[in-house]
Structures are given as structure tokens and as C-alpha cells.
Structure to design on (100 residues):
């Protein structure tokens, strides 16, 4: 019985963390190893990428977002600013999109 409670709890946690684009993005940044940025950074629409790649994003059912206080990648010292959030069914999944 306890095993099923753990499984149901994990599924519920996953769904709660991926039910909205902003929480999916914050979860992704947190899992990348940047918990402070995941909690404190603001999230805004990435108007540049949404305008330039809008048709492609529409076909992918996705939208680009930018972190206002992005984390700095340790290896390259680059800012991890832009992310693509895709809607799959009723959940959202985020991935790093890059600068260009």
C-alpha cells in the first residue's frame, strides 16, 4: 500500500510542477542546478523569438520565455536566459532555447 502512495504522490507532484508554463520553466531551471534563479528570477515573454519563430512555435504548440535574472553557466560563464516551453496534452515541458 505504501508503494502505491509513493507512486501516486510522485505523479501528483510531477503534474503540479508541469501544469503551468511558468512552473514547468522554474522546475527545469531548478533541476539544471540553479535553485536560486528558479525561485527568484522573473519570467517574461521572449518577444523576439516568439515573433521570429512564431510559425514554428505554433506548429510545436510552444512559446519562448526569458528569465529576467538568468543563471550563469559555470563552464562557459554564459547566461541561460531563453527557454522554450512546449505544451504536451495538458502538461508543459521546458527546455533551454539559447540566445539565437
Amino acid at each position: 500500500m505504501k508503494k502505491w502512495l509513493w507512486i501516486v504522490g510522485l505523479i501528483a507532484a510531477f503534474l503540479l510542477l508541469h501544469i503551468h508554463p511558468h512552473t514547468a520553466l522554474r522546475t527545469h531551471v531548478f533541476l539544471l542546478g540553479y535553485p536560486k534563479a528558479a525561485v527568484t528570477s522573473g519570467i517574461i515573454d521572449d518577444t523576439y523569438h516568439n515573433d521570429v519563430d512564431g510559425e514554428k512555435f505554433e506548429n510545436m504548440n510552444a512559446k519562448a520565455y526569458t528569465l529576467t535574472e538568468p543563471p550563469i553557466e559555470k563552464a562557459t560563464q554564459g547566461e541561460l536566459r531563453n527557454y522554450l516551453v512546449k505544451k504536451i496534452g495538458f502538461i508543459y515541458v521546458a527546455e533551454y532555447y539559447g540566445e539565437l
In short: The first helix runs from residue 2 to 17. The chain has one domain: 2-96. The CA atoms of residues 33 and 74 lie 10 Å apart.
